Amino acid sequence: TLAERTNLAGVQHILLVLSGKGGVGKSTISTELALALRNAGKRVGILDVDLCGPSIPRMLRVQDSAVHQCDSGWVPVFVGQDKAIALMSIGFLLERPDDAVVWRGPKKNALIKQFVTDVAWGDLDFLIVDTPPGTSDEHISTVEALRPYQLLGAVLVTTPQ
Amino acid sequence: SSSSGDEALRDKRARILSRGLPKQKPIEGVKQVVVVASGKGGVGKSTTAVNIALALAANDSTKEVGLLDADIYGPSIPKMMNLKGNPELTPKNLMRPLKNYGIACMSMGFLIEETVPVVWRGLMVMSAVEKLLRQVDWGQLDYLVIDMPPGTGDVQLSVSQNIPIAGAVIVSTPQDVALLDAHKGAEMFRKVHVPVLGLVQNMSVFQCPRCKHETHIFGADGVRDLAKTLGLDILGDIPLHVNIRETCDSGQPVVISQPQSDAAKAYLKIAMEIVRRLPVTPA
Predict the structure, then answer these.
(1) ipTM, 2 decimals?
(2) Where are the beta strands (DSSP E) in B95-224?
(3) Its Gene Ontology molecular function terms (chain B) (predicted)?
(4) Backbone phi, psi, residue B9, to 5°
(5) Is residue A20 within 8 angstroms of chain B, CB to CB?
(6) Cα torsion at B158, B159, B163, B167 (round to 10°)?
(7) Beta strands in chain A (DSSP E)
């Protein structure tokens, strides 16, 4: 099947981290969740689709890393103490970590599709998808691109305010 | 000759490309527009925008101030300004802004139910922002404060391409990941030729209400360092205080409900610093 031949074929469960509101801790929780699952012996990947404010590379101290190409597409950056968590973020594609990404929807959609289909994730138990605030292009495109795969569900993060 | 042919082709291409971009046109009756942005979510843009609008009016009672909530996805202004309801339409089919505390307000939140999400792609958002800018009967305003959504995308581009902006205020907490986004926000304004008036360091320090011990929950002085790097001024420093959040949640922002408090005074000072940095307009 098409799914078997794609880069997400080896991913067992996909988990979205959403909030609506900004600044409530989506990236922090995505990162800690990934580390906790790794601690529990799972194979984990993180996909950071916050194109305007990618925080995860900095949180895992890999903001200066670069991504490489392989036969099946981009090779994710491996992070964590045992370098076993796969991470993909637009942060790795910028020339400088503080370059601004000022794009309209269609360009964002194109990159998100690529992040979903052209990253060689390998065999993962969990792929955690960190999203930006809002309910916009990034979210619509991510869900649409992930629809053919095992989308486990979403975790909603909020503060009491 | 071929070189004049090349130049003619370049000119034609430039003209065709520029036809696609919206023409920048001021909003009728609005003298100066100040945008409050950040890049990062949850650093206090709306809280700051609301209190700045109130402070601008409090500092000079002769000035008329408006507040536009451009956060289409998560409009906070209705709650913070204690306003609800659908806007009326004028005979010219413009929406009448809702007013409270003397400030004219418009928000996506007035046009949809509180719990209904706006799950729209960029193109629809662009047209919604146009409506909130141009199809509102703002009247005569000295200042229009625009509360931006987080990010550096469609809304920010649409607003800055549509109307002339007198200045941008960038809000950030001292936290590293917030500063990273604030830096991107500042660069975005540079790209679209909007002058950045300065930075506001928000949630800078927390003082325990019992023992008065101070904790820099989000780090210390990060915004000052960023300001230095970018060559920008710090317009003000606002502590993380329960009062500020509580008063906003209850629709009585601190500048109005506790004008003698340190927090209110901090916002009044920021408003003063903003006015000092804006170009002087003809009366």
Answers:
(1) 0.76
(2) 98-100, 103-107, 141-147, 167-172, 196-207, 214-215
(3) 4 iron, 4 sulfur cluster binding; ATP binding; ATP-dependent FeS chaperone activity; metal ion binding
(4) -65, -40
(5) yes
(6) -140
(7) 11-18, 44-48, 68-70, 73-75, 77-79, 85-89, 124-130, 151-156
Specify the length of chain A in residues: 161
Cα B53–B55–B56 angle (5° rounding)? 65
Instruction: Number of A to B CB contacts under 8 A, please give it.
Output: 122
Q: What is the rounded distance in angstroms from the CA atom of residue B135 to the CA atom of residue B143?
A: 17
pLDDT, one tens digit per residue, over B57-102 is 999 999 999 999 999 888 999 999 999 999 999 999 999 999 999 9
Nearest to A119 by CA among A140, A149, A95: A149
Does B75 contact A at CB distance below 8 Å? no
Which residue has tokens 């046109």?
Answer: B25
Mean per-residue pLDDT, A13-20? 93
Q: DSSP string spanning A92-127?
A: GGSSSTT------HHHHHHHHHHHHHSB---SEEEE
How many helices (DSSP H) and strands (DSSP E) are in chain B?
A: 10, 9
Residue A102 is nearest to which of B150, B176, B191, comparing CB atoms? B191
The Cα B231–Cα B229 span in angstroms is 6
What part of B 94-153 touches A (C-beta under 8 Å)?
Answer: 117-123, 125, 149-153
The model's pTM is 0.85
Domain A11-157 -> CATH class: alpha beta
- Residue in B251, B274, B276, B201 with CA at minimum distance from that of residue B50: B251
Domains of chain B: 28-277 (3.40.50.300)
Per-residue model confidence (pLDDT) at position B2: 56
